[in-house]
Specification:
single chain; 11 strands; alpha/beta; two-stranded antiparallel sheet; 14% strand; globular; 10 helices
């Protein structure tokens, strides 16, 4: 059964003073949609989006994931409108490495100058003097690719030295790429595709835990096509929870270095997601979930 939300405890990023509650919030879904263009333009209900952000922080969320290419610029501007001036414990994590085409496409933007420009765009639209953590987005939509990344990562390292960002993470990368990146700069978190049905990073999660590096799964509920399984539904019913709460709780119990950033534009769904942080799945049920194909 689900009890009062406790946001699943906290996690401190390696060699930093940044401690966040493990249940965070992803801002991508606050942007609107224009036909086939997803995460594009302002939301239909701007005040509703602002209310979701304020409710999240009031509920104890102190880790918000965003990017200036969501919208583009929309989610960062909403975050600033809703929450600025920010509380001292609020950590805003953004990402760079892409831009949006006029047709809504997602285009690589990884030259040194594009990285510099993206960091300054994030600073301006969020109303910050320093970015807490910046993830460099690599790979394809859902999987790492064998590609050079020294130029954009070195640019981020330079901006860190200049004091414009505090810490650096990577998104959609392999364990080999992490080792290469660590020769350039310290990496404090990884953001890859991972959920109850997408478990290709199982060993990677464990290796990162051993290093004390945070693992932040994107699309923890399946992304634009939510997770669906009759067995997941049965487990949820037996625990007095929703299937999505079970999927989130499974991730939280999977490893202590996993931080969650489920996104929603609905206060009702936000509350449902946050309640998952207090759901305890019995070990025998965890084993059952591990054995099924969602």
């Amino acid at each position: 059964m689900i009890e009062q939300t406790d946001l699943a405890g906290s996690f401190t990023l390696p060699d930093t003073s940044i401690t966040v509650n493990r249940m965070g919030y992803g801002a991508m879904q606050l942007a609107g949609r224009d036909g086939d263009k997803l995460v594009w333009g302002p939301p239909r209900d701007v005040e509703g989006a602002i209310a979701v952000l304020r409710e999240a922080v009031a509920s104890g969320v102190n880790h918000i994931d965003t990017s200036d290419y969501y919208g583009p610029h929309v989610t960062n501007q909403l975050i600033k409108q809703a929450l600025h001036p920010y509380s001292d414990d609020l950590v805003i994590v953004t990402k760079v490495g892409a831009r949006r085409g006029s047709d809504g496409s997602w285009i690589h933007a990884r030259s040194r100058q594009e990285i510099i420009d993206a960091v300054h765009d994030n600073l301006r639209n969020l109303g910050l003097d320093v970015l807490h953590l910046v993830n460099l987005r690599l790979g394809g939509f859902s999987a790492p690719e064998d590609e050079p990344f020294e130029e954009p990562l070195a640019a981020l390292a330079e901006l860190k030295q200049k004091g414009l960002i505090q810490h650096i993470g990577l998104s959609t990368i392999s364990s080999r790429q992490l080792a290469e990146a660590q020769a350039i700069t310290e990496i404090v978190c990884i953001q890859n595709l991972y959920n109850l049905s997408q478990r290709g990073d199982d060993q990677f999660v464990d290796n990162l835990a051993a290093q004390g590096i945070a693992y932040v799964p994107y699309f923890p509920l399946g992304g634009f096509s939510p997770l669906q399984s009759s067995r997941l539904n049965e487990v949820a019913a037996s625990l007095g929870a929703t299937p999505m709460q079970v999927a989130l709780a499974w991730l939280l119990q999977r490893s202590p270095n996993i931080l969650l950033i489920p996104g929603t534009s609905s206060i009702e769904h936000l509350r449902e997601n946050l309640q998952a942080s207090s759901l305890q799945i019995p070990p025998e049920v965890i084993a059952d979930l591990d054995a099924i194909s969602v």
